């Protein structure tokens, strides 16, 4: 009997919350290194904004020589930059922290990757100029609402230090994978900050303001801050660069397998430099073997890796993966525990049973 009429089986996003919408990428079922619009993870603090995008303008104001309002047409006409970037929610893998932490309990799928095209932010700022007193650049999103700790209305706003804002790879993007950015991912304009956790890549950019002090908005001063102490705020510091990390995609955790030869696959990424090597262990980390990197290791992009595993003996196996980047950062055995559960990057581990 022909199978030609059987429906195609496709993965779906993994829903964590519907309002505001928070959904994970089914990372274990993503092949290659580009995630489609449909399967790109969704992270929102507020409901989706409402605005008439046909009348969309982007003002740059504050401590600039010439405040300016850019139309979309002007932005599209400027020299563009295209860049492949991992965007990882800083709460990715939060559910793995021990002791447990409050917040959206993301598994391993609050991460996606694709090709963004836009205008380097520094090109736009070249049209306005910066005053000597400029210290940070604030990006206001169109999305707003109440925070859990307050009935006051807040807009999602974040800042970048001048050096990061002027990095040639920091762009105001308008395309994802050669299409206009999907509305749910920031259409028509989204800031993309390669190498930093995704909260920095503000969606639906409404306004850019240059300031001469530290920005104190709640999504900068309260959230997206590492609090290493359970009882107080001592030692706190901001969430910025992606930690070196890896995820085993196949086999799935707690899978039953027969003895034989298996190709173990995964991804690895870092915000610093590029991935230099990925290692794998089958004995709980006592010994490590080097994996093969199957995609080129580029700055800002994840690498795909694999390892051929021949297993003949029955029993339970702990499989661990550990990435090292070109700056010498190595995944730790334990994550840096912090009160809000950001930046989890401990060695990835799964268990399988050979029957």
Protein model, in words:
This protein is mostly beta strands and 355 residues long. The protein has two domains: 14-223, Oxidoreductase, molybdopterin-binding domain (Sulfite Oxidase, Chain A, domain 2), CATH 3.90.420; 245-354, Immunoglobulin-like (Sandwich), CATH 2.60.40.650. It contains four helices and 23 strands. The strands form six sheets. A five-stranded mixed sheet has the order 4-3-12-7-8. A hairpin with a 6-residue loop joins strand 7 and strand 8. It is globular and about 70 Å long. Keywords: Metal-binding, Molybdenum, Oxidoreductase. Its cofactor is Mo-molybdopterin. InterPro entries: Ig_E-set (IPR014756), MoCF_OxRdtse_dimer (IPR005066), Mopterin_OxRdtase_euk (IPR008335), OxRdtase_Mopterin-bd_dom (IPR000572), OxRdtase_Mopterin-bd_sf (IPR036374). Residues 45-218 form the Oxidoreductase molybdopterin-binding domain.
SSE blueprint and pairings:
Blueprint: E1 14-17, E2 22-24, E3 57-62, E4 68-71, H1 72-77, E5 81-88, E6 111-120, H2 121-128, E7 136-146, E8 153-161, H3 162-165, E9 171-176, E10 179-180, E11 190-192, E12 205-211, H4 218-221, E13 225-226, E14 237-238, E15 245-250, E16 255-257, E17 260-269, E18 275-281, E19 289-290, E20 292-293, E21 303-311, E22 315-325, E23 348-354
Parallel strand pairs: 3-12, 16-23
Antiparallel strand pairs: 1-2, 3-4, 5-6, 6-9, 7-8, 7-12, 9-10, 9-11, 13-14, 15-17, 17-21, 18-19, 18-22, 20-21, 22-23
């Amino acid at each position: 009997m022909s199978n030609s009429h059987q429906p195609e089986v496709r993965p779906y996003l993994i829903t964590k919350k519907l309002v505001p919408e928070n959904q994970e990428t089914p990372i274990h079922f993503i092949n290659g290194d580009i995630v489609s619009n449909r399967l790109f993870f969704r992270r929102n603090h507020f409901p989706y904004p409402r605005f008439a995008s046909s009348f969309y303008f982007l003002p740059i104001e504050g401590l600039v020589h010439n405040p300016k309002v850019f139309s979309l047409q002007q932005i599209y006409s400027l020299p563009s930059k295209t860049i492949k970037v991992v965007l990882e929610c800083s709460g990715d893998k939060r559910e793995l922290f021990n002791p447990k932490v409050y917040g959206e309990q993301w598994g391993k799928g609050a991460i996606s990757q694709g090709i963004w095209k836009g205008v380097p932010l520094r090109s736009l700022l070249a049209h306005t100029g910066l005053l000597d007193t400029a210290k940070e650049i604030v990006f206001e999103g169109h999305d707003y609402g109440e925070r859990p700790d307050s009935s006051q209305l807040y807009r999602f706003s974040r800042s970048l230090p001048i050096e990061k804002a002027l990095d040639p790879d920091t762009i105001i993007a308008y395309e994802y994978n050669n299409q206009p950015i999907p509305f749910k991912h920031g259409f028509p304009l989204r800031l993309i900050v390669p190498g930093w956790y995704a909260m920095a890549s503000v969606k639906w950019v409404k306004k850019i303001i240059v300031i001469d002090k530290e920005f104190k908005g709640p999504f900068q001063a309260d959230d997206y801050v590492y609090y290493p102490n359970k009882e107080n705020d001592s030692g706190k510091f901001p969430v910025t660069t992606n930690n070196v990390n890896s995820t085993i995609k196949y086999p799935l955790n707690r899978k039953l397998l027969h003895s034989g030869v298996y190709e173990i696959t995964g991804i690895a990424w870092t915000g610093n430099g590029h991935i230099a090597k990925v290692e794998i262990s089958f004995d709980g980390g006592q010994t490590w073997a080097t994996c093969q990197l199957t995609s080129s290791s580029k700055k800002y992009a994840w690498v795909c890796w694999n390892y051929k595993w021949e297993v003949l003996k029955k029993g339970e196996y702990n499989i661990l993966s550990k990435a090292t980047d070109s700056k010498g950062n190595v995944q730790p055995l334990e994550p840096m525990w912090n009160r809000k559960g950001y930046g989890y990057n401990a060695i990835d581990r799964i268990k399988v049973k050979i029957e």
